[in-house]
Amino acid sequence: MSEKRRPTLEDVAEAAGVSRATVSRVINGVRNVDPKLHEIVWQAVDATGYVPNRAARSLVTRRSGTVALVVSDAVSHDDDPFMRRFFADPFFGRIVGGVMSVLRPKGVQLALQIVGTQEARTRLVGDLGQGQADGAVVLSLHPDDTLPQQLCDAGIAAALVGRPAQPVPISYVDLANDAGGALAAEHLLGRGCTRLGMITGPAHVPASQDRLTGFRQALARHGHAWFPIAEGGFTYESGESAMLALMAEHPGLDGVFVANDLMAQGALMALRTRNVRVPDEVAVVGFDDSSAALDARPQLTTVRHPLEDMAAETTRLVLARIDDPSLRVESVIFDPKLVVRQSA
Amino acid sequence: MSEKRRPTLEDVAEAAGVSRATVSRVINGVRNVDPKLHEIVWQAVDATGYVPNRAARSLVTRRSGTVALVVSDAVSHDDDPFMRRFFADPFFGRIVGGVMSVLRPKGVQLALQIVGTQEARTRLVGDLGQGQADGAVVLSLHPDDTLPQQLCDAGIAAALVGRPAQPVPISYVDLANDAGGALAAEHLLGRGCTRLGMITGPAHVPASQDRLTGFRQALARHGHAWFPIAEGGFTYESGESAMLALMAEHPGLDGVFVANDLMAQGALMALRTRNVRVPDEVAVVGFDDSSAALDARPQLTTVRHPLEDMAAETTRLVLARIDDPSLRVESVIFDPKLVVRQSA
DNA sequence: TTGTACGCGTTATCAA
DNA sequence: TTGATAACGCGTACAA
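The joint structure predicted for all components is written out below.
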């Protein structure tokens, strides 16, 4: 890019009147350095405008100074409607924000990787094993995803955002989805609803199951042994039709917990179609606190998913494991909060 | 990661019975290599499982083998509702897909960078100048964004997805937004609408202006000298209120062109609120063909924005400029297509 | 066409 | 505590 040569350690050393080695030690914060030299060196760094050469450093440290953000789906990105849905949620952006918030201060690069096919997954694990990145923050979006196991087998420093669908000894950060379901139940009961129903997400998604379980247990604690359920697919449309089905079979419902905001938005549309007033006739609680919650009419009361914080924590887990590969597998669970708006 | 040392060029050379240099030449596809050796070397590469060391290569080639995907906004990510909107669109995911489709085959890494503050922008330009990445695909989301100019001044290989808001000698790829506006106009007129209106995006966004211009000119060609306009902010809510305003002031409208799908979705909601049938009483055409177009009821007839292709082309522009910095600034314009669904 | 040898900018080892 | 000096793995003039 620039015409003139970038300053190197040697240049700084000359400017400071010391040796390369000393400058290197100062910059890397190694102890055993004369405080006087310390200052002199930093001044020289400033004066020369020195910036460490990542490649040279990587070559000798055998670290890339990069962490990969891997989005793993069952099928290729382009063909899959769910993948479009995934990006359609603010989900991804929030995660990126959380990851960057811890990577940036450490000067670590974020390399984005999206793997849809089995071949791509295998290649990715190979690349990571070759040191393309020092570790990986992984979003595994499909229950049959083999990537967590592969990463584990390859001994790669990685952690998942969200509990792995299958039991794999890999670190992860998750939300107490069951607690979220309980929050929704308590809130609906608290506002006087007595005939509750739920629209769940896909049965094979762990988060979806947990939300159902939490909702069910909280209701059971209040004596509600049973409630009608309709299964959706986390999409707007599925929420709409699930709500229609629920209303057709159980006309007396006065409260519904929907496993994500997008479906809840669809459910609101269905209620509107049937001229049912929300929340007066039927109260609706969503999940995620995504932008869909604000777009909805009425605005959604929903369970907030602190994705940024969770992504940041996941990144810390990965970084810690890069520093010390002997660290044991760990999981961190976040607690959800209820955000009360208009729909319940 | 792995216990044993990774194979190096030296190992391959030994296995093939040639010198390091020859192996290097074969791998990098340099001419002047004996075809026989060529094959022998590749077999040795296979046998040893050799993979080039990026750091070592970078050190000598002075290339990072990385392209940055930069999202530049006027304010910090977390605070800005527009940023959430941005990620809320499938926009970002589609662009990532397009970029990766050309980077992956070339073995180039994608480094994600999100800069919200002026300080972050300056630091980014510095980092890129230091060779953190060889070039940048840039999404500039704010009219006052100084990043394009800064990149230009720093002589960094970069190209924008979307026309820069201010005239800057930098390569970009854009959509013929005006042609898209014209498509919408022709379609509405073609289906017999005679009293048209438009909901525009923010006046300072170039794409928004162009859509309006194209719509206007096409109508003018058919004798429609004037039509009512309401300005929105590319959000669902703004589309909803713009539509309400339009209906209040111009009750006779029978067709509306909305500058993006999200606003169009809001407009549909407004029409529904007023019990106006779509498309029978009022036809609606959106823009982008985002997932919002499919979520809408009725599903949106809209102008398709070939974002993946555009992002891929932008990436090619960046790559070409990395290879040959003397390449002149270039722009590539894509043509939109009309996707007919139910709303018009 | 192939091989030798040097340099890329760091970190790390070992004397001093 | 500091300073030479040896890797790190690769590309490439230059010589053969």
